[in-house]
Amino acid sequence: MFFTGKGGVGKTSLACATAIHLTASGKRVLLVSTDPASNVAQVFEQTIGHQITPIAAVNRLSALEVDPSAAAATYRERIVGPVRGILPDDIVAGIEEQLSGACTTEIAAFGRIHRAAD
User: Fold this and answer.
1) Domain containing residue 100
2) Total count of domains within the chain
3) How far is 7 from 10, CA to CA, in rounded Å?
4) pLDDT tens by residue, the chain, 118 residues
5) 59 in the same domain as 73
6) Is the dihedral of CA 88, 89, 94, 99 positive or negative?
7) What is the reported pTM?
8) 76 and 39: one domain?
């Protein structure tokens, strides 16, 4: 389930409330935020960060805050790293340029979510 929309519309509040509701019905829930200014830790009054973290106050609920920029950098390095030093520098620079857009950040963030779900 994804909660999207512009800032200030209640995405975090709805996501947290939904996560709690789902755990109350017996489901295990991983709540993931890709907001660089995530407030999920503030809602649950505990540090979350970039690793899956059990929420102390809610059984069966864990949370993860994905840093989209860091995820994109890791993704780019996974793509470019193996060819750096093999391909000419201008080709590597071109590949890095192609991987510098917002779509790469989104792909990398969703990749991080996918790995967390495994």
Assistant:
1) 68-117
2) 2
3) 8
4) 888 888 889 999 999 999 999 999 999 999 999 888 889 999 999 999 889 999 999 999 999 999 888 889 999 999 999 999 999 999 999 999 999 888 888 888 888 888 877 6
5) no
6) positive
7) 0.78
8) no
